[in-house]
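Researcher: Next entry in the queue.
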Amino acid sequence: MSQEHYIKAAAIEERNRDSDTLSETRKDRINQIRDTEEKNRTKDRLLVQVEPRDILDYGVIPELAGRIPVVVTLDSLTQEDLMIIANDKERGVISQLKELLSLNDCQLEFSDDALKAVAELAFCKKTGARALKSIVETTLLDAMFEIPGSDIQHVLITSDTVLEKQEPQYTRREGEVVVEQ
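Model: Structure for this entry, 181 residues:
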């Protein structure tokens, strides 16, 4: 059995074992997501009803409130929205980092689970799309220093890399898969 097959088999075995019992942090995160989604729905329902008089009652001076011709509200971002924003082909933070690493002849790949984990963490931070960049850059911090001048040609980011702070999976030019612990 090659080293790559061994690593894949071990990862599948570990994932099956972990899926039987969710960790407490994972349960807490799921509960936090549910609470945040409910609060966002309530807030969005109320904000749709805002009128210019409400802006005056909030404390904005009439001279300024009179210069606001239209009152518009925005819906809160969902996890799906955050995934789309992160993976946008032109302006997404992941696309920008892929382009940056391609300058070193290195391909960056995020698994679907990793993308969901990034969106989940950003959603929990409640800072919108700005959290995406912070999470992705923190996840790739060590890789960004290790890749230039090395023989790494492919970096795979998994959900464990994002959530558990494990090292990414590197593929070197010889074709050898390296998982650094």
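Model: The mean pLDDT is 82.
Researcher: Noted, moving on.
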